[in-house]
Amino acid sequence: MIPIYKNPRFWVPIISNAFLISLLSVFNTQLSPWNLYLFIPGVFPLFLAFNRPGASGLVGCILSGFLLDALFPVPMGLFATLFAAVHATSLVFAKRLHRENIVQFVSIAFILNLVCWGAVTLFTASSTVWNAQFFAQFFVNLFISQIVITPVAWWYFEFQAACLRLAFGIRIFEEDLT
Amino acid sequence: MLWKQLEPYRPFLILGAFVLGWLVIQGLARTLVRDLFYEIQAPAWTVSSYIDDLQNSLAVSATDKRALAEQVRDLKRLNGAYILKAQHADALAAEIERLEGILDIPEEPGFRAETARVTRRDMNQWWHRITVRKGARDGIRNGAPVIFMDGIVGRVVDVHAFTSEVELVTSPRFRMAANFDGDPRPVTYEGRGGLSFFTPQGTVLNVPSDIFVSDEQTIRLVSSELGGVFPSGLTIGTISRLTLGTDGVFKTGPVQMSKNLLSVEEVTILIRLSDSELQEAPRL
Q1: Residue of A25, A133, A138 with shortest CB distance to B192
Q2: In angstroms, rounded to a whole number, what is the distance separating the alpha carbons of residues A134 and A117?
Q3: Is the pLDDT of residue B30 over 50?
Q4: Which ipTM value was assigned to this complex?
Q5: Section A74-78 average pLDDT
Q6: Are A22 and B172 in contact (CB < 8 Å)?
Q7: For tag attachment on chain A, is the N or C end more exposed, with fewer CB atoms within 10 Å?
Q8: Which residue in the set B30, B124, B201 is minimally distant from A76, CB to CB?
Q9: Rounded CA gap, B163 and B166, in Å?
Q10: Closest alpha carbon to B233 in B160, B151, B120, B113
């Protein structure tokens, strides 16, 4: 049995997550003159959670979480823990989840994004800054992010699947789940 | 043998080892993991920043010669004005030094200026941060003040090998000592974030009640040396409204910040000089 880090397929979703994080950073830099912010961490763990139910998926989720933890001034391990929890939850609901069902995938990304917004607000913003101005900006940015996450999640799932297919010539849905 | 003797205390030993491990290893691991994952991603923003620079230079090279000649003419005029100002500043610095000698006042701290390009801007309700293309390798230190053409940008909060993170003056996590232009009494400044599509704001607290402002008579809020980070006299923002606080003694009011803060592309990081460096370098 080869270690998971030696399996190149294990790295594809993580590298694509790093790519999307960089892309969003560039996009947010362009949006900053309008004081707008796109924050969609809900899309990062889903491909791994849906398609890699074993240890490799869990490690991938944690590594993707660490990428975000390093980038933002949040308590270290916040996203890693959240993404690991998403992976664990996906195992519980494995029988109800259909990997081909893109609507289900996008809906979960939508809900998970809301959870991430709540977690970041609870763990980073002190209650002294929870004023009307804070919540006004919070809801504008949340509204834009939730609108954007729908097409992005759909595209991103297809993108990651296509990356795996092109790199290794496999269809992800036929992969061995062990 | 010893282990058997310690058997009754085993739960306590395990607990002690766990606490020790948590305090030492966890802190170390956290720092290492954060640094590692940050440095892995940093080249991506640096590359995108260089691509931006390339786009700008291509745009300049595409500009027609007449427009370029006009720009050069304007820059020459500006250069002339700045040479005069630099001479005046030199004369003032010499005068300050002379007065410091006469009055035996301790010397003001000197700074070295390091110009850096902005690679990433993160402006949201939780934090206002920028990443700049200079890091520990260029001598940047944690807590260093950062300025730009309109005044204060913020302070360095995280230094990495080739990049640094700067907390902006508008960030809800930012707080500093300040005073009004021409009034030495200290006040407190706090960042307040801002509304989407609007210029970010700050708040000034603990303002003496004998200070009055209006839309016609605005007042400039400047940095104070009391905080020990910023040199005095740098612009933070302007105030056009003050209201008496709930304590009935001090006033508070919103601070209008520069709109350019949201699209800042180049900043200057001030690095405090050590005593030996101070003797050699010209004072800023």
Answers
A1: A133
A2: 13
A3: yes
A4: 0.84
A5: 87
A6: no
A7: N
A8: B30
A9: 10
A10: B151
Q: Which of B128, B146, B112 is nearest to B236 (CA)?
A: B146
CB B271 within 8 A of CB B112: yes
Going by pLDDT thresholds of 50, 70 and 90, the confidence category of residue B54 is confident
Structure tokens belonging to residue A115 = 């959870």
Q: What residues have CB less than 8 Å from B62, skipping those under 6 apart?
A: none
Residue A48: per-residue pLDDT? 86
More confident site: B156 or A49: B156
Q: What pLDDT, on the 0 to 100 scale, is given for residue A116?
A: 93
Q: Which of residues 87-116 of A touch B (CB under 8 A)?
A: none
Cβ atoms of B165 and B156 closer than 8 Å: yes
In angstroms, the CA A57 to CA A4 distance is: 10
CA–CA separation, A40 and A27 (whole Å): 12
Residue B5 scores a pLDDT above 50: yes
* B37 closest CB neighbour out of A28, A67, A120: A67
Which chain A residue is nearest to residue B196, measuring alpha carbons? Answer: A35
Chain A: give the shortest CA distance to residue B255, in Å: 14
| Beta-sheet pairing, B111-123 with B243-244 | unpaired
Residue A97's Cβ-count burial label (10 Å; 0-12, 13-18, 19+) is middle
φ, ψ of residue B201 in degrees (nearest 5): -130, 165
| DSSP type of residue A125 | S
**Which residues on A lie below 8 Å from B35 (Cβ)?**
70
B78-96 pLDDT, tens digit per residue, is 999 999 999 999 999 889 8
- What residue type is assigned to position B81 of the chain? A
Which of B71-80, B229-238, B271-280 is least confident? B271-280
Q: Phi/psi zone of residue A76: left (φ > 0), alpha (ψ -120 to 50 degrees), beta?
A: beta
User: Is B120 part of the contact surface with chain A (CB cutoff 8 Å)?
Assistant: yes
What does the pLDDT read at residue A178?
38
**How far apart are alpha carbons A60 and A55 in whole angstroms?**
8
